[in-house]
Each structure stands twice: as C-alpha cells, then as structure tokens.
Amino acid sequence: MIGGLFIYNHKGEVLISRVYRDDIGRNAVDAFRVNVIHARQQVRSPVTNIARTSFFHVKRSNIWLAAVTKQNVNAAMVFEFLYKMCDVMTAYFGKISEENIKNNFVLIYELLDEILDFGYPQNSETGALKTFITQTGIKSQSKEEQSQITSQVTGQIGWRREGIKYRRNELFLDVLESVNLLMSPQGQVLSAHVSGRVVMKSYLSGMPECKFGMNDKIVIDKQGKGGEGATGQSIAIDDCTFHQCVRLSKFDAERSISFIPPDGECELMRYRTTKDIILPFRVIPLVREVGRTKLEVKVVIKSNFKPSLLAQKIEVRIPTPLNTSGVQVICMKGKAKYKASENAIVWKIKRMAGMKESQISAEIELLPTNDKKKWARPPISMNFEVPFAPSGLKVRYLKVFEPKLNYSDHDVIKWVRYIGRSGIYETRC
Amino acid sequence: MTDSKYFTTTKKGEIFELKAELNSDKKEKKKEAVKKVIASMTVGKDVSALFPDVVNCMQTDNLELKKLVYLYLMNYAKSQPDMAIMAVNTFVKDCEDPNPLIRALAVRTMGCIRVDKITEYLCEPLRKCLKDEDPYVRKTAAVCVAKLHDINAQLVEDQGFLDTLKDLISDSNPMVVANAVAALSEIAESHPNSNLLDLNPQSINKLLTALNECTEWGQIFILDCLANYTPRDDRESQSICERVTPRLSHANSAVVLSAVKVLMKFMEMLPKDLDYYGTLLKKLAPPLVTLLSAEPELQYVALRNINLIVQKRPEILKHEMKVFFVKYNDPIYVKLEKLDIMIRLASQANIAQVLAELKEYATEVDVDFVRKAVRAIGRCAIKVEQSAERCVSTLLDLIQTKVNYVVQEAIVVIKDIFRKYPNKYESVIATLCENLDSLDEPEARAAMIWIVGEYAERIDNADELLESFLEGFHDESTQVQLQLLTAIVKLFLKKPTETQELVQQVLSLATQDSDNPDLRDRGYIYWRLLSTDPVAAKEVVLAEKPLISEETDLIEPTLLEELICHIGTLASVYHKPPSAFVEGSRGVMHKRLPARTGSGEGTECPDVGNAAGGSAPEAAPSIIPSQGDLLGDLLNLDLAPPTTTGPTPSTSGMQMGGMDLLGGGLESLLGGDIGGSPAMGAGFGAAPAVMPASLNAPVGGGLGDLFDLGGGVGMPMGAYIPPKTVWLPAMKAKGLEISGTFARRAGVIQMELVLTNKAMSVMTDFAIQFNRNSFGLAPAGPLQVLTPLGPNQTIEVSLPLSTVGPVMKMDPLNNLQVAVKNNIDVFYFSCQYPISMLFVEDGKMERQVFLATWKDIPNDNESQFQIQDCHLNSASNKLQGSNIFTIAKRTVEGQDMLYMSIKLSNGIWVLAELKVQAGNPNYTVILNESKYISSLRFFQ
C-alpha cells in the first residue's frame, strides 16, 4: 500500500510530507526531488523506481504530488487516489497552489489522516468529509450528530448526508460533449469519437431517488418491442461509466440508471460513442507549393447542422512552415492573423449558423533554406462550441421520488442544456 | 489568518522560543506553537527536542490541537521510545471517549506509533474497538490490526486478533468488511501458506454482496482479494464473473482494472464453447477503451496493462486499433506505449492504416518516439508479409530524409527484414551503402556491417567498405568488433582470393591486440577453423539461418501468466514479477492462472499442483529467445532482434547460454556436426538434476559437479565456470549487492565480481580481503574499482587470485570468507569456490608414475560415485579444458575405462578412473587420492 505522500513546490521543496509506513525514510523525499523534479530531461514516466522504491506522481500547475511505496501496490488505485486528493483539496480551499497549500497545511494533514489510513484510501467524498473536518475547528456535536456522521462516512450512501432541506427543489443537467476527429486531406474520416459527460447539479431536499433516462438504443429497442413505439432517434453508446452513486448491478441487469445523488454538483456519467456522429464542421484544405519559396493555402470550412443553430468561438489554426517570412491572408468572415511565435495562421470567427460555408486563402512566403528535412505539415486543427450534442444524445427524463418528504416529481424545477465542444478536431493537409 | 508564515521562521534560538510558547497558558498560543513545530517537521528540521513539551499539550479537548500533537507523536515516537510511554494513558482514555470520532482517532494513531513498548498497551483498547458499536471505529480498528501485525506479528496471533478480523468479514457495514479484507490480505501476504484468507463459496458470497455497497476504494480491496480465489468449477467461476461485470462501468479506473483482473483470471476456467465466454470477451473491450480517456497517468497504467491483455487474449481488442492512434498532445510515455500496442494489434486487415500512421509519427520531434516508430515499421514488415514491400519502401523514403537517427534506426530494422525475407529486397543495399558514413551508433554500425558481410558477393566494394571500418577497430564497441570480425571472415569465404590480407589483419587484431576475451575467443575459433578445414568453415559460418519469427518481444508465457494475475498493480506497470522490485517476503509468492476445468471434461480433482502444471504454457514459445543465443551469434545468425525482452525469472538461463556457446558451439565446430548442438543444450539442461546426492566429501562434490557438467556440455577449451550467484544481498550491506563466481583463465584463478549499488548514495573506496582458507587463496592485487559507484550502477570487476596466502582448514573445504569495505562500512560474506579452480595446468602424470601411485594408495582413500546421462563423445577433451588429464584408456569386458589425473594448486594429486559401460550412459568414477589423508592431517 501507499507508504508515504509528499507534496513539493516547483523548486522541489517539501510542503507536505506524511509517512505511513516504516519502509519509507526521509531519504525518499530527497530521492524524488533529485531524480524527478530536478532531472534534466522531460518526465518519461509517471511511475519512477529509484533504489527499489516506487514513486507515483501527478502535477497540478507547478505543484508535484508524489505517492511512495516499496510494495506491489495497485497502481491504478494510487493515481485515482492522487486525483481524488486534488479534488478534495480543491473543494476545501480552491486552486492547488503553493500559497494555498502552505496556508492550509494543518487542514491537509488532517485530511490525509482521514482519507488514507496506513496507506489504504478511506472514504474521500467531500460531502461526507465536510461534515466533520472543517476549517473552523470542530463544532461541539451532539451525540446524534456524531453517530450520524460516522454512519454517513461508513454507510452505503457515503456521498450524501441526511436532513438536507431546500425551499425550492431544483436540478440542472448539463450534457457536455467533446467531439474528436482526425480526417485525411481527402476528407476521409480516419477516426472520430465523442466523449461526453452528464453533469448534474442538484438542490433537492431529503434523500431523493432519481431515475435518469436517455435515448440509449438498447433501451429504446427493448421498449419498442413492448409496443410503446419509440419516437425519434436513438444512439448506440459504446461504453459508459457512472458516478459511484449509480447502482451498477441494476444498470447491468435492466440498463436503467437509478441513484441517490450527492448534494450539489457531480459528474453522473461519462460515455463514448463512435457511430453516427454529427461532425459540426468539415475542413477542406488545399495546399500548393509554388516554387521553393512560396506556399498557397486555401481552407474552406462548412458548417453541418440545423440552420437555426449558431456555433460559437470558432477558431481554425493553420500551421505554417518554420521558415515562413511573410503571410498575406484574405478571409471572407471573421479575423485571421499570422502568429509567428506559434507558427500558425489563426482564423477566428465569432458566430456561424448551420449549413454555411466560409473560406480563407493565404500566401505564405518562405525563406530559402538548405535544410533537407521536409516540413512535417502538422494537421489543421479547429475549436468551436455548438448548442447541441454531436453524439445525438437526448435526455428523455429525470424522475425524482422522495417518499418521505411531500414534494413530487412535478414540483422539481429541471433544466437541461446541451453543449458540444471540439476535442481534438484535426484535418491533415 | 494564513498558516504559511509558519514555513518561514528560520531564525536562531527558535527551539527555545517554541519551548516557551508550548508551555504557555494561553490555548491559542499553544496551538500556534504546535503548528510551527509541525511546519518545521515537514520541511525536515529536527524538532525532536521538543518532545516532552508537545506531549504535554496532548490532554486537551480541542480536537484540532489533539490531531496536531498526534501527528507529531507519529513522527518522533520512534526516536524517543521512553517518552512515548507518557502518551499511552491519554490514548487509553481516548479509546473510551463517548465520541466515536475520538475513539477512532486514538486507535488509529496508536497503531502508527511504532514503539514496541506501546504495542502492549494497545492490545486491550484495540480489542474493544474491534467490537465497538460504531462502524467508524470498527473500520479503523480493522486497519489497526494490520499495523500491529507489521510491528509485532506474534503478538497479533497470540492475542487472537486474526480471528476477530476474520469475523469482521461478516460485518453488517460494507466499509468494515472492505477494510477487514484489506488488512487480512496484507497479513496473508507475509504468511503465504497460512490460509488466513480462508476463501470459500460462503465467504466469497459475502464479499460479492459487500462489493455492491461499499466505497470505490473498498471495491478495489475486495476485487483484488477475489482475484486470489480459485473457483472450484466453471459454474462457480461463471457466477462470480456475472457478479463482477457490473463493476466495469465504474467511474474509478482502478475498480475497472481490478474487475478486469478477476475476469481475465476466472475466464481461464470457462470452456471456450460456452456462450457466456464469448459474451464476456465482448464485454471487456469497451471499458478498456474507455480507460484511454482518463487522465494521462492512468492512461499509462491502462496501456501497460492492455499490453499484457493483448498478448494473452488478442481477440479482445483486435477491432480497436484506431483508439491507439497517437494524439499530437499525448505525453511521451503515453505515445510510446500506444505505439507498442499498435504493433501488437497490426494485422493484414488494418496494416494500411497502421503504416500511414507510423509514417506520420516518424516525422515527429521526440527522438525516442521517432525511433520507435521507425522500428515499428520494420516490425510490421516482419509480422504482415503482404505489407513487407510497402514497409521497405516507406523505410527507404525515411532514409532519404537523411535525419541521422532515423537512418540508423531504419538500417537496424532493414537487417531484420533481410533475415525474414531472404533474397527479396536486397536491391536496396545500394541505397543503404550510401549512408555508411553517417552511422555513429554501434547498433546501426553492427547492422550495416552484418549486411555487407552477408551480401558480400553482391556488393562490389565490400572489401573496401569493411576495410574502412577496420581502421578504427579498437575504438569500436564490442558489438561492432564482433560483427566486423565475422563479416570479414564471411567475405573471405566468399571471395578468398582478394581478401586474404584483410582477414589476416582482422584475425590478428582480434586475437593479439584485443583484451576482450569474447573477441579473442571468436578470433581463435575462426582462425583454427580456417586453417584446418575451410570447407567446414564455410559450412559453419555461411550456414543457412533459421527464419526469425514475427512476434519478437513477447513476454515469456509463464511471466505473462503471473503478470495477468497482477493486473492494475505496479508489477503490471513494470512488466516484472513483484519479487523483482519488492524487498522481503512480501509479494514474492508467485501467482498463477487457474487451469481450465470444464465439468464436461471430467477432471475431478482440482489439485493445486495439477492446476499449475495444466496452465503451464501449452507449447514451447515459438520465439527465439534473445538470451542464450550466443551460439547463434557465434555462427553469425544474429537471431536476436534488438528489442528488449522481458526479464526471465532466472538469470541462470543467460549463464547457460554462455556455457552453451563454448560447449555446443565448439563441439559442432570441431566435429562438423551442427545437428548435435541442440542436443547439447538439452543435455546441459538436465545436468543439474543428475548430481549425485550422496557425495559429502567436498572434493568429490566439486568433481561431481565438474564431471557432469563436462559430460553434459563438453568444453575442450575453457574450464567450467559456475553461474554467478548473489553472495551479498543488498539488504545486508546497506545497499551494496555483490554477486560473483570463480573462473580459471590462462592459468590464473579469477574471482569475478559484480558490484551493484542499490542505495541512494554514491559508493567509493572499495577494498577486499580474504580470511585464511584451505588452499591459501588470496587477492593478487587490490580491487580495481576506480570510479565511484553511483546509485543503481553496476560494475564488473575481476580479481586475480594467488594461492600463496595463509592456510587454514575450512569446513566445507572450499569455503571462503571475504570482507569488502567501502566508504560506508565493512561487510562480510562467505562463498564457496569450485575445487576445479585449483586444478593446475601441469597435472598430467606420466603413465608409469600414475600406475605406481595408483597401486600405492590405500583402499580407504578411494571413493566412488556414479554420473548418469553423460555424452561419451570426446569426454576426455572436455575434461582437459578443466585441467583434468586423461592418462590412459582401455577396454575391459565391454567397458571403457578412462584413467585421469588432476593436480591441485597445493601439489596434491587426485587420480580417477572413469568406467563407461557401452549402451549404458552411466559413468562410474573411482577416485583415488594420493595424499588426501595426509593433506587432511597437514591441515589439522
């Protein structure tokens, strides 16, 4: 199991050091600094073995978190724990920075004591932790409160406490998708996938039982047989994972998503689709080499969605060779600029409706070089945001039941929003 | 209020000030002071002097202050054990506190104070806490048992805590169950045979129920524990799999990987024709792919594991090639791993796509990545025959870029392609030759030289090319020198008329001017071969090479099976068994996959031994092992592709390869019987088993060793050199590991040492000394370790020994006590040298003398033993290599008798009779020792 946990600043000074096992000595702290933080070359692996001691590290801005062990630990678990640790710290004091860590070191030690016992991760849900680890010192609790805390920390629903009350029961659902594309110059899709997240922000009283439904092909087909008649499109989900509040065995058996949500924000599910993706933009590049000192580039982008919708924050990045000496750009829409420091022409368009087309052409002048190495022609990449889900996912319902309190599903105000963003959206040229 | 100010106090007299503040009456001031102490502790300052003052602050009802004091205690109690006792009372009292949070805090902290005296006081409170009404206290106490076990295992057993812990597996609270499982698993690891985690269908059922209810971490503990269980039959296996599969949708990647581990293991038991088997295979792919959208560090862990899974069950991910395509922004470690998996998944169906990708990668910036991409193109060519042509042309394109490292890498892989498809792509040789000058890496130079030598007849100026390399012969690395030697010999055999001068030049360079024994030996072999029988030389050197197989860097099957049992853990990240990087007894237990026991097959006894045997690799691996191919190397087969292979569990395999070279290789060279060499290898493999067990006499033992090695392998040239063994483990010597062996080279006894620094600091000032010993062995010079030995560095030293040191009889006779000193300390160890080291070169006795002596020796100086399974051919030749000389040979009643003599370094003669029955492979050896008794007296 984890033998120790250290937090360093960018210089390699220790900010937090907590040792859980005897086999980890003080010299381990230095070994990591010398061999990893101060190492000259780039980090070649997140796991380093120095003198039979293994170091796992993650970096957040310029802070290093390192878990140390001499045993054959579950490596995936160690990394998951380090991420979780970052989440917990962020939930307590905001951004992870040297300043914040120094200001909260007592709190961090207290947290480490609670969420890692003898190197075994324990309940690390912030909702539960915040009930008894506070920044303002422990409030004197009544006996009931104490046992409530302990049963929550160890209980089946460790992520939510009892007795939450809201005057207005409200919930927000965000379907956030990032669409990834790699396209050949000829317009052939080399790979495309959507990775999406359903983020839920809930302000619900009591212990509400929720049921979430979407246009999952498997569910719709099943219902279709039942005679209900499925309307609209359904989508094939390659794979999905759920927040720990979702009852996995129920999903496995019936493919229904039921859960008691944590209070506030949580990522309910992640999913991935590869079939029938709506690619919001198509990029058509045309690069022509005119002699040895000139390149002509023409790029056409086409929007491919309903004309009533508007895409935003569109940015097309056209790489230029390293020996570029000057660039002339003409574009029909938006603004385009050659950024020498980034070796690219950046073309920005604020808004663009569906089923439209726009074009940019540029003349790139090159310095003559005797460098034999050919220019590698990095792909043209694109950024954008669209108000729909490129995977075609639709939320069909989110039902809320709270048998003990007197509010029903109809009283809950629900909001649903779809945002599609570009992930790595590249076209080779 | 900002706490960061505590980090900045560095003025003098700080400790005094803190002391005063700690003893202050004001609570706030006290708390501030403790915070300062903790901050100093964190940055590594020694604040142990404040121990009594801090402990005085412990009795408080302020929980925050209490926690801080506890933190201090955990850090310093070990250095101040007597003072730590002061804290015991407070702990015991806190364990009775009405607040469960305080009870748990007390028992948790007490477990972390690793002082023997405290543990005694810990027992009673712990017992109470294990049965506490509050689950929070129970789950903390469960882990505390593991802590206590780590400090004092006996105490935990005596106090019956293990049974209580077992009871907690049936606890109503899932988190208590999970922690109890974690604690028991850890304790069980240090008692491999204790059957502590008595897993049976009932307890498994309890675990599976808890699995649905506990936290993500608890699920990992339980799944990792489940993976150690072996179901009784395929039905049980299937039902567990069914209950584990929902975990594949968990958001926590570690839960997913642990579930994959359980499924991969239990799948082994399912009959392949079962519908469920296919379903399960299909279910495994999506979650594995999803892992690749996790954070980069987790992607790395996932990719290392997928690499194993793909080798074990390629069918799972065969359609998922695209997800392993490298993204422009992936961290380099993710890129390299993805590339590895792409090659493994490459097949005829997707090769076009893969090649297009690889070509893109070859133009990236990271040197390692580009190299690997180029290498990958070569491997695709070897793996998918249809693509070979395209691969070769891609490689040629890359060579045209003239980027130095790309060219070198391309040449290395093209050599392998030539090997795989002989007489197909040699037209590109001209292009390769153009780049000769730019090659500066040994591997690329060696590859190019190999190509020139191999195709000497097609390259007009082959002799010029090779000659150009010869100029700087002594500056080349061994790899290049060996290759150059062989290539020129090949050239000579192909064009003998023009290149005689060249070959003589290289032979003399290799044999006379070089002090590298490998090079010299190879030089001599070629020289003799060429001078005695050029026809045989041609047969040997230009022999047809076996084809190289397509999968080159597969992990050895038994290791792969073990690693599959460790999916998700560090072992699977390193691709090494836990014993390779975990110290002590923990985790050295080898895990195995269960055997397939279909109920239809009627295997009724799932005996462990059988199970293990059944799961052994079904067929010998079709890969050519990269170690142990020195023989091949000698014959210039160059079998080993330059990729690294996973470490084999036993290093002796490598040593055997070395033996094989001398034995089999030479034998076949001299006898012209190439077919014989594999048999030699096999004979050697069996040799250790036939060592007579009844031999107690040290000399006899040594000889037996020698005889059966001699018989098994045959070494006319070199003496038997035992494989290196670890004499001084790093744990015993503050990080210095010494392994070594003895050898007799050119009449000088050598002690060959490998020093490895496994500590974190640099080691210098090495020196060595021997205790008095039976044959007066002593170092003939100082230990030559000139450069300081940095962390994780290894150095090989050979120390010449003389036999003129002080004499003292040792038991056993060949025992040697050694002291090694470095800048850290002096370390002692003892080792045993093979007696054959002491056999001197002038041990050949005159026939008459032999006869006379033989008769003179009394019968009680005689000992007899048998050696089995020896190969007769040229036994005496082989023995002569070890300075055992055959005096006479006669045949009596169908038995061959060989008479031999040996002379020890201290002048003692040993005479031996070797009786060989025709048709019976057993040898009887009768040893007669002239001065054996008297020498013993002499010692006393």
TrEMBL record, chain A:
The keyword Protein transport applies. It comes from the Eukaryota. Keywords: Cell membrane, Coated pit, Endocytosis, Lipid-binding, Membrane, Protein transport, Transport. One of its GO terms (cellular component) is plasma membrane. It comes from Oncorhynchus kisutch. InterPro entries: Adaptor_comp_med_subunit, AP2_Mu_C_sf, AP2_Mu_N, AP_mu_sigma_su, Clathrin_mu, Clathrin_mu_CS, Longin-like_dom_sf, MHD. The lineage of its organism: Eukaryota, Metazoa, Chordata, Craniata, Vertebrata. It is found in: Cell membrane; Membrane, Coated pit. This is Adaptor related protein complex 2 subunit mu 1. A 1,2-diacyl-sn-glycero-3-phospho-(1D-myo-inositol-3,4,5-trisphosphate) binds at K335, K337, K339, K348, K350. One of its GO terms (biological process) is intracellular protein transport. Belongs to the adaptor complexes medium subunit family. Its main location: membrane. The keyword Zinc does not apply.
TrEMBL record, chain B:
One of its GO terms (cellular component) is clathrin adaptor complex. It is a peripheral membrane protein. Residues 613-623 have a biased composition (Low complexity). It comes from Oncorhynchus kisutch. Residues 839-940 form the Beta-adaptin appendage C-terminal subdomain domain. Residues 720-830 form the Clathrin adaptor alpha/beta/gamma-adaptin appendage Ig-like subdomain domain. GO terms for molecular function: clathrin binding. One of its GO terms (biological process) is intracellular protein transport. The keyword Membrane applies. Residues 593-623 are annotated as: Disordered. SUPFAM superfamilies: ARM repeat, Clathrin adaptor appendage domain, Subdomain of clathrin and coatomer appendage domain. This is AP complex subunit beta. Gene3D superfamilies: 2.60.40.1150, Leucine-rich Repeat Variant, TATA-Binding Protein. Its main location: membrane. It is found in: Endomembrane system. InterPro entries: AP_beta, AP_complex_bsu_1_2_4, ARM-like, ARM-type_fold, Armadillo, B-adaptin_app_sub_C, Clathrin/coatomer_adapt-like_N, Clathrin_a/b/g-adaptin_app_Ig. Signal peptide: none annotated. SMART domains: Alpha_adaptinC2 (SM00809), ARM (SM00185), B2-adapt-app_C (SM01020). Keywords: Acetylation, Membrane, Protein transport, Transport. It holds the Pfam family Adaptin_N. Belongs to the adaptor complexes large subunit family.
